[in-house]
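Researcher: Hi, I'm a grad student and pretty new to this. My advisor asked me to get structures for two proteins we've been looking at. I'm not sure of the right format, so I'll just paste the first sequence and hope you can take it from there.
Model: That works fine. Here's the first sequence with its structure tokens right after it:
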Amino acid sequence: MNIETKKNSNMIHPPKKSLSPWAMARRKFIKNKLALTSLLFIIFVAIVSFLAPYITTADVTKINIGQMSLEPSSEHWLGTDKAGRDVFTRLLYGGRISLLVGLSCTLFVIFLGTLIGSVAGYFGGVIDSLLMRFTDLILNLPFLVFVIVINAIFFGKVNGLWVLILVISILSWGGIARIVRSKVLAEKENEYITAAISIGCSPAKIIIKHLLPNIMSTIIVQATITFATMIVAETGLSFLGFGVPQEIPSWGNMLNSAVEPDVLQFKLWIWIPPALMITITILSINFIGEGLKDAFNPKSRR
């Protein structure tokens, strides 16, 4: 009788399907209010920045001598800069460039680092040694000096913005390559990799279909950290005058005005808005990274 009762109860209430690691990570990330709020903020900033032409009609580059350094008003919500340009408009357009540079550099860095790290970790031996010595060379190059020199050489000859993106990316993939290599070295010792090799799978297929999906969580977390780092790099270089060309508005270029004592002390509306946007954006990206790191950590799951 008890056995029949158990069978009937199992038929009425079938066992719940276990969640996949990705579903568990997604559920845990959504429960992290700080990380979720940060993600929504970044999405909002990206949407507003890329819809800037539809939000404001002010000319982002036109110099208006009669409206130089005006304080915030109903006509100019965040005032005007020392060239008479609307600060709110430049803030929106500057977000487009800063986010574009950060995202583009992140994609290049993740691609190069993942490619070189996975190949080095999988093949080992001489290939691993050569690729890691090349990675050490990249890591030891003086980042700021090389970016300034290469950007100065090609400035005016080709699109300065894309030269900056390429230079930053080429000099920044070393850390990602080392992390991916260490993960691949540990992952390739598992039995499913040995089974894939024994049935004749090609190295490219093993890396793409078996190794990379199992270390993708680490790559995603590193991508968020890299995204924040790339925005900081663009901002710092533009602030020094060696980043995004001055005619293109970016948050870093807007901060470039703060080097003047008069602007820094008495015209706070010119540099505080971009400084706040950079700070909040970087914090939000870091919170997202921490949330993803916690979500993908098996030891933190209940």
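Researcher: Oh nice, that was easy. Here's the second one.
Model: And its structure:
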Amino acid sequence: MITTMTYSSWIPFGSSVRGASHIRAGKENQDAFLDSLGNEKIPSVIAVSDGHGGNKYIRSAKGAELACLCAVKILGEGGKLSPDMREEDQEGLIRHIKSRYLLEWQKEVDAHAKANPFTESEKGFLAERCGEAVLNAVLDSPKTAYGCTFLCAAGYGGSLVLILQLGDGDVLGLYEDGEVRELMDYDPRNFANGTLSLCSLGDASDIAHNLLSGTDVPVLITLSTDGVKNSYDDRNPGDIERFYQIPTVISNELRKNDYDTAAVRKGLEGMLERVTSNGAGDDVTIGVLFNGGL
């Protein structure tokens, strides 16, 4: 039974695995994740980010790392969401969190680009793979090189969860009765290889959110980069159903391992290695946030 608990009743963990195709091509893992266990003042947070794979996004792995760092920082500083707040006050605070997040990511990227100017090797790569026009565009707007998407979830006690999303990826919730639901609406702007990106985001209102409260709050949430779902064949109902069973599998493993997240994380890493090897070959990352009362 879900009850109202302290912020730290939510426990985050996750795993990220370098894609099989990236290993073959000698590319780094462009996904990132970060978790932060809350306390009586701040929420528990899990953040997942997917750096773009295109040639012009030559620093997307760093962009993804910064996206996760900023999520943990801003949600920790953003004030206390409460189920007792008026709806308009909740919405106002969420708008503030989104704006602060975008500004913080842009500030961190600008600082990194200033401290680490593009090398001759990076410029040569851009010119060779993308052409002089793209090279000049990236030099004119360095944030482009850091392009990435992000997902994060913050648990404010057992009865309130905030989810933020920009770009593709999937958020699933497991409920007490065993039902698994998608927790974010489909955005048609994220289609095929095209997606919203932090590097080109001008308006923080484009960051989607879902505030779950009361009986809408699941007992376990998974956030996954698109490489995970893309590794399952959506033309095969039995295969794609395996994707939607991931939260159930993780919940069962938590119970079996007496909620030892280190042991479950190791098993999750092995599962992700199989997913990328047998599937799309992309980097694959899953972040988990579960209620301590699971």
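Researcher: Is there anything I should tell my advisor about the second?
Model: You could mention this: Residues 1-6 have pLDDT under 50 and may be disordered.
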